[in-house]
Amino acid sequence: MALRARALYDFRSENPGEISLREHEMLSLCSEQDIEGWLEGVNSRGDRGLFPASYVQVIRAPATEPPPPARYANVPVGGFEPLPPPAAFKPAAQQPPPEPFPAPHAGYPFPPYGGSYQPSQGSDDDWDDDWDDSSTVADEPGALGSSYPDYEAAGGAPGRYRLSTRSEPSLGSRGGEHPPGHPPPPGGGGAAKSSATVSRNLNRFSTFVKSGGEAFVLGEASGFVKDGDKLCVVLGPRGPEWQENPYPFQCSIEDPTKQTKFKGMKSYIAYKLVPSHTGQQVHRRYKHFDWLYGRLAEKFPVISVPHLPEKQATGRFEEDFISKRRKGLAWWMDHMCSHPVLAQCDAFQHFLTCPSTDEKTWKQGKRKAEKDEVVGANFFLTISVPSGSGAGLDLHEVESQVDGFKAFTKKMDESALQLNHTANEFARKQITGFKKEYQKVGHSFKCLSQAFELDQQAFSAGLNQAIAFTAEAYDAIGDLFADQPRQDLDPVMDLLALYQGHLANFPDIIHVQKGALTKVKESKRHVEEGKMELQKAEGIQERCNIISFATLAEINHFHKIRVRDFKSQMQHFLQQQILFFQKVTQKLEEALHKYDSV
């Protein structure tokens, strides 16, 4: 008997080898075995090709028990049993599930989408020591990612809550949904308004999709959030802001030292970290910084995690490189400690406080961070925004602010690139050209002095000595020029490099907010056309507001820290310039005074 299937949703083919489906259409399957989420079959029009397996229901005889509704798909694996829907409800048609990875025939080179960060590869501080092994977090008792027997036994763990943006289907409606705690419309009405759903992005590799923003806005997020995971946005004088860290601290990075392991076969640089809130020093390698950056970049899709100084395969034990990297890491650490959210992150605190010699505790904390479930769509569940009258956001105003910031970052990025190029070129001239030219002048004065020394008259001796001293002054001034960039221009370029990393982060952050706003506009259009219930559209707008609050809070934090940093750095630059020219003036004045006794 030929295998048959019924289309659950509409599907429009976009690539060669795919076929389109219409809801309720009957299809003939070539095989029940799916290929990376795609089935091959023939539709009612006689077209043969591939289509998403999740968009059809295979018809078998006798009928088997249907699979559980997809609405519980995001409940953590190995965790809690899904909460059953109210008894008065019957599962209704679901929204179409996300399409599988591109069909294998379409020539997509991408791997399955997931987190946006991929750990950097290279020979610089590879992961090869005993602090990392292949065991999983389930091997450690009480580690995140295993089951929660205490919760199941007691009916709920203190400080841990199940949050969900999923909705319950209304009676008699096709795919109609209502926020938890809200009853369906009486009499099962509203079926016509529930017939439309907000479409999914066709590009499943976009930041909006990979970050979990789309799933959150469409009401598909569901997970458990601890009290300590909650992130609060408050209304400040400049608009939405992240709630300040009640226990601010700083962390110094000092004394980079070369260390060895495996009886000297492996060498690496370790940096001493001293957090002010503990006072206990720990040592970390660059690979530990790199690991932490990867976890944070994956966890916080609407927060700009500062970039680390670049890796270097050769010359990484040279003194100049080690000094430059330490300064870059110091800037990175300052921005981490200054961010109200990043500073309090469990993974960052583990990085700062775990003793360097306690390998077991380090590995447990590392695995816990890597198995963190509050990522993707579930991350947005942790964000708490202002409520009440006057706390809402005007979406047009939000869009205007975000567009203005987008233009600002573009202009700042161009200016930072220009300043970095100019400063680098000027530093190169000071180190080579200016030093050479001043010393050339000094050499010429020295030649003149040597010529005058051929005159043995006593009254010319003082002049000869003064000219020789002037030659030495110009030679010293050349050395001052060569040394000056590390005092003033290098710190400016270090700051520009850090901010270029931030500026590279914001397009993705803005893309998430723009994607959410697009879904709101689409839902409003459906409401106006009578195809969607107002309650459902309001849920989408409410979730968009959460993303907008977080985005504006991050923008305000960026501006706040930018003003602080550039004020401090420009003051330092001008102070160093003044000191430099004072040294030059002092050298010239000393040479001038030599002529007073001639």
TrEMBL record:
It is a peripheral membrane protein. SUPFAM superfamilies: PX domain, SH3-domain. A 1,2-diacyl-sn-glycero-3-phospho-(1D-myo-inositol-4,5-bisphosphate) binds at R285, K287, R325. It comes from the Eukaryota. Residues 85-196 are annotated as: Disordered. One of its GO terms (molecular function) is phosphatidylinositol binding. Residues 123-133 have a biased composition (Acidic residues). InterPro entries: AH/BAR_dom_sf, PX_dom, PX_dom_sf, SH3-like_dom_sf, SH3_domain, SNX18_PX, SNX18_SH3, Snx9_fam. It comes from Neopipo cinnamomea. This is SNX18 protein. Residues 249-359 form the PX domain. Belongs to the sorting nexin family. One of its GO terms (biological process) is endosomal transport.
